[in-house]
Each structure stands twice: as C-alpha cells, then as structure tokens.
Amino acid sequence: MRSYVRYVFSLLLLFFAMMVHAQHNNDNRIDLSGKWRFAIDSLDRGITGKWFSRKLGDQVILPGSMTTNGKGNEVDLHTPWTGGIADSSWFKKAEYAPYRVAGNIKIPFWLQPVKYYKGAAWYQKTVTIPVSWSGKEVELFIERSHWETTVWIDGKEAGMQNSLGTPHSWVLSGILTPGTHQLTIRVDNRVKTFNVGENSHSISDHTQSNWNGMTGRLQLVARPRVFIDDIQLFPDIDKKEVVVKTVLVNAGGKSTAVTLEALAVTTNAGAEKLKQLTKRVTVSGDTTRLELVYPMGQRPLLWDEFAPHLYTMQLALRTPSGKDVRHVNFGMRAFEVKGTRFAINGRTTFLRGTLECAIFPLTGYPPTDKASWLRILKKARSFGLNHIRFHSWTPPEAAFDAADELGFYLQVECSSWANQDSRIGSGDPLDTWIYEESNRVVKSYGNHPSFVMMVYGNEPGGPGMKHYLVNFVKYWQQKDPRRLYTTGAGWPVAPESDYNSTPDPRVQGWGQGLQSVINGQPPRTDYDWASVISPWKQPTVSHEIGQWCVYPDLKEIKKYTGVLKAKNFEIFREQLAKNGMLHLADSFLLASGKLQTLCYKADIEAALRTPGFAGFQLLDLHDFPGQGTALVGVLNPFWEEKGYVTGAEYSRFCNAVVPLARFPKMIYRNNETLNVPVALAQFGPGILNGSRIKWTIAGEAGSILFEGDFKTTAIPAGSTVQLGTITQALASVLTPSRLIVTVSAGSYRNSWDIFVYPSVLPAAPADVHITQQLDAAAIGVLQNGGKVLLSLKKGTLKDAAGGNIAVGFSSIFWNTAWTHNQPPHTLGILCDPRHPALKEFPTQYYSNWQWWDAMSHSNAIIMDSISKGLKPIVRVIDDWVTARPLGLITECTIGKGKLLISGIDLLTGSEKRPEARQLLHSLLSYMDSNRFDPVTAVAATKITALLKE
Q: Looking at the domain 29-85+111-218, which fold is it?
C-alpha cells in the first residue's frame, strides 16, 4: 500500500511539473509552423540580389520540403542526382528507351521523387515578438533542416549552420526585440565546403532523397538572460548517483546570482521518491560550467532492453530575469565491454540488430514524431531485434525517445560515408566537420540511455583514414564514457576501438559469389566464426550480414502515395508482363521469400552459435530501395510484412533466447544415425528453467516420430550453453521424407528441416533412355516413340539458352546492378510440390536445403529457347531486372517420343549425392507411369541448338 501511495504521489508530482512546464512553454514559445513565403534560387542570385531584404512571392507549408509542397523540377535525363549509379545502362540500353521519354521517365536506381531540386531555396516569415519577451534571449530552433541554413533578421545576417543530424538553432541576442520582424532562411542542399560522401544516407537519393526544407519543431523560444545551454547526465549505477554537468550562458556577462534546482522523477510504480537538490552560485562572464552530484537513492531502477526504466531530470534555473526550466529523460545504465562481448548493467547481452538507412517513402525525410518511431521499433522487436544501426546518418530526437521507451540499443553515425567520391583523414574540410558534428550529436542526444554506440560513419576510404579514425575513437573515449566507440562501420579494425565492426563473420561476403559458405559448401549448421574473431580481444559485431533478396512485391506499387514513387517496380512489372509471367508475380514473391528467410536464418544462427561473439547487424530487416533496388527485407520499406514470414516465425531463430543445433549435414540416408549437438543461446532477462528443454522429430504432417529431453539445471543468462546431443537412428524412416527437428526451451522453440532418403533405390526402368547429350542414339529412341531423360552437364548450355546465368542455392546477394553482376543471379525455385514428377522427392513450392545440390550442379534453361511459353515442372526465379522464363526441369515431345529435360546434372558423382539419386529416381518413376504425357511438341534441332558443340 505504501509503495502504491508513493507511486500515485510521484505521478501527481510529475503531472504538476509538466503542467507548469507546459504553461512556461506556451508563454515562451512561438510556433513557426504553417505558411511561409518562398522562392527558388536556381541561379544563385538571392544573396547578391538581397532577397533577404524583400518579400518573397511564392508560398509553402512548413514543416515540410520543397517536394512535399510540389516545388522543383520534373525528373528528366539531366536530373543532377545525389548518389552513385553503379549500373548506368538505363541511360543507353535500348530496352530502357521507353523510360527515357519525357512524360514517361522511370528510373531503376531508387524511388523516384515527384519533383527534384538541388540548390538554394529561400523561406520567409513575418514574426511578431510580444512585449513580455522584452529583455529575453530569443532562440530560433529548427529541429531538422536539409541542410545548410543561413538566417537573416530584417535583412541582417545572423549566421550559418550545416549540421545534418542535429537541430539548427541561433540565440538572436538583441535582434528579435518586441515588435514585427522579417525572418528569412536560405536552405541549400548541395555538397559544398565538405563532402560527407554522395552515398551517405544523410543526403543521398538512394534512400530518403536529397530534400530541401525544414521539418519537425520550428519555433522561437524566449529564455532569461542567464539560461541553460547544455545538460549532460552521467549515471553511475555502482555509486547510485548521476553527475549533472551543465553549461550556463550569461548573455549580459554581468556577475549574477542564480539558483539551480534538480529533481529526478519517474512514473514507475514502487520507485523511490527522490529529493530536490539545490545549488546557489554566482555566474560571471559569458559561460559557466556547473556540476552537481545527484543521489539516486538506495534502489535506483536500471534501464535495459527488458526493463527500460526511465527517469526525468527536472532542472530549474532561477535568475533575476526569470526562470529557465528543462526536462531531460535519462536511464540508469552502464553499457560496457565484458571480454569479447557487451554487458548491460553487468549482464552479458547479444546485439541483434538491423540497419535504418533513412527510408521514408511517403515524405522523403525522417519523421520527427515519437509515434512513428514506436511503430518502427515495435515491429523490429516483434522480429526479435534489440538493436538498430543508423547507417551514415543520425535520427531525430523522437527516435531516441522511442528507443528509450522500448529498450533498444542504438548505434548512431555522424552522417558520413566517406568513400567513392569522398575520403576521410586526408586533411579535407570533412575531417574538421566530423568532430564538430559528433560534438553536436552528443550535445543533442547524449543523455538518451538508448544511445550506446557512436561511429564516424560507414565504410571509410582514404590513405589516412585509420590514423584519423583511431584518434577520433581516443578523443571520444576520453571525453564521454557513456557509450562505446569504433573506427568505422565495416572497417578498419583497430585495437584502440571499444569494439570491432567487420564484415568477415557472415555466410556470404562481398565478392564471394558461388564460393561462399552458403553457396560453395553442402548445407550444414555446425560452423561458426570462432576462428574469424579469435585474433581480436574486443567484442566483434558482424557488419551488414544477410543482404538476401526477394522478388518485388508488385502489389506494393499502390502504397507509394507520397513524394517518392516506385517507378522502378513499374519497370520490373512491365518486363515480367513482356515475358508472359505477370500472373506468377505473387508466386515468385512467396517462393523467393521463403528462401530469403532460410538464408537469414543461416546467417543469424551462425552468429548465435559463435562462442564469445558480440552481435550482428542485418542488412536488412526491411527493403533498401536504392543502389539499383536492393530488396533485402522480409519487410517492405513501410516496415510491413510481405506475406511469407511473420514476426513470430522469424523470432524463433532471432531472439534473446534461441535453441541452436549443429547439424553436420541436412541430407541423410535412412541407414544413418542422426548425431546433432544442441545448444541454447541464453541472453534473456534471467535464469531459464532447464527442466523444460525438449526435442522432437516430426514428419511433414506433424506427427511426432521421435522425442527426448535434456537433463539440464537452471540456465543463467549471458552465454550460449551446450545442452547435449540428439542421437537418433533413422532406419525406421522408410520413405523419402522431410522431417522437422524442433528444440523447445519453455516458450522458446526453433526448428530445422532435414531430408531422409532410402539408402537403397529400385533399378531404373528399362524403357527410359538416360543420357547427358541428345545424340543420335537418343534421337533414335525418340523417333521410335521411346522415352528419354536428358540430364545436362553443367556448362553445356549456350549463353543464349541460359548458360551464362549464374545459378546458386541462395537468393541474389544485394542485387546484380550494384554488385556488378555478382552471382548468383537467381532467387531459387518455384514448383508445384504435388506434381507427379516430384512424388518421390519431397519438396515445398520453394527452395529448401534438398535443392542445394541441384542448384549447385545446374544451369537454368531459358524456356523460350525451346518453345515460346513452355511451362517447366520446376522453375528458376530469375533476377527481376531481366525476368526471363527459366526452368530446371521440363518436358516435351519429339516426334513420337517423350523427352524430359533436366538442367541439373543428376549423374556425375551421384554415388556421393543422395539428393541427386533421389531426384533422379523420382523423375524416372514419373516417366515410368502413365502420368508422363507431355503436350508441347518440339523439333529435335531446337534441343541440340541449346547445347555447345
């Protein structure tokens, strides 16, 4: 009862403080949102023409951008984009000619804005300062501008600011006096004095767009002559206190006595009521640094992902000219290095992250309201994540607020990707700007408990980059220990960093193509990255794992109702329709999506299996619309599910607690015994009951064939624990089967598909001629009404028939445009699992592990090269850019005979390939039945013309 009374009292106290604060805000703030006068300055005549001294003639609504206001130019062949274009074929290839015509411009590089403008634009508003503000310091506050702003008051220049990730603000001492004034702001979105890199997501058209405007809170704020300029809170959970560091600005410079009052409150039930701390000082000079040590009581509530307890520090500065009140949210937390892992408040944690690359199709710029960010982060949490990396940009305050509330760990970057057209550490102006920007970022957002990591930016370039970035890390380690720092996202690895960010530990690296773990090695789950990370003594976070693509969801086109349009999807849709497969669009999406999910599962579980590993950052949980269109998300750019995997399904292998299994292979014969070590990644909030860990092996219909449990005591949080081994003979599995192995730990469960085939198969039917070339003997069989199975060797197809299409097991990595056609070029298979040809080869409609062998020993056949509109038994889903009708297995008649063509080599080395043996048996059983009745007639010369001589 007593704790409840304290809880109610704290709520009333906070409510009263907020009401006082709100009243104070209403009296001391002027909202500048609404209509502004406007002018485009495409010829840069505004400054010399003194536009700041005249009234502008056009009009826009702010907050907003030129694009949201319909201002700018039509997109055309000469639009001066901001962002690299790796594949420039759109500008010259004949197939894109219809999309280069005025009135039908459609680009495939990224989402297409309805209007585009790069340059200076002028915004102007008449403001009236009330008499009650006499003697006050007036601040102009622009929450987010894109990007360089220069301000004039009544024709007098007040200064320029160029932050990309923090508010632009000016204290306009003695300028905005009571009365009416003309406020003019010039916004310039060109790369000018410093170049953060044209592909940086802070500025690039690849994602948010290079917009021109001002968003978020736009306001004038009145403050007393002595006011609080900066507050930084340094929690110490061991000492149970917060060091409060403030900077007071004394505009008059005269010696003045002031009183600073501090009170920390929280809305959490049962929290201690804390006392107000008062400090009286005399300030003199322009600025005064003041420090308080605030005791947080005997039982301070700690902040983490499971219990994100927040406090509000209320600071009131009482001065002779009035009171300045600030409210700063913070959390009692310590995010630190613990060996090669991270610890939150002493408990080991594991980062399960994704990227946010400033992807906001409706507005073209990031939201500044908390509700929008809560929606995004709640969706990420539903997929098992606890971490977000902001790739080469810094989000608005609302993102930090949402992350604080939900318990997300954020990696923030200082708006740069200094590579390709830029460099870091070479003495360019960017070097100085990064230090300035990072200081602004920490000043603006440094109190947020979610802000646990900071980096200069993404994948740096330049001969002096490592020296510069190591010094940058050292600078921040010494200046602010509240978070951890590393050199750059991706590289370079340096012992001076608090943690490593490197792309080495992942199942597909850039440029590996078909030689990667997932494409170059038979499927298994017994590998990890221990040997990769062993040389390093600090935590390692794997950089941009995944990048697995899915087919475009063409239904998504109608969702782009804002300033960015999916013209790229329109191009892909028209190409698919041209090739007669538009009706398969949804099937391609679902089948490739299932494969994409399987690939992400492989990536994530490998990270969780690795002893001493610190975490991963996906690229991405949602689609990346730029760089030639990278459809790498199981969610679309609006953070919506696409229909093939839910958050509940995804979080079975991506969560705080995940059962893991080390399968030495995924394909078995029934004369073998399954021996699978099982572990549990346990990074939950506390001890897990070990007596509830069980395993089952079920058939495809769900009936349990085998089961058991692990004799394990209570499992503490903070590590990956070995549970034991599943040992099970498979002799009783008499028919070819897909089996589902499931390990359950209380409410957490994870599953894997394995495939079991008979060790002994019947002899091939005598009346089927099996060959790897359509030679005279095979043609003779066909002419006499016989049956032929043509199993092509990999590499025998001509390029025109599909021989140059790089087929692999995985889906496309990132995309083919930005990777310069890196293989694979396909997105898995699509088939009807009920087709009689597949009766003895259990399959779903999409690629699972049993198709790895086939995809690794095959060429995809362009069906039209055999016969226009020929429907294959097993399709291969092509790159959405080319959208060719591809097949692995198809059938036709030649003369009186029946031919089944396999683009898979089912014969070479088949004694060591159980999947090939089983698929061959299934096809032959089909050919030996009366169900084998192809209807499309083809001349033998059409088949021989496919093959190299």
A: Jelly Rolls (2.60.120)
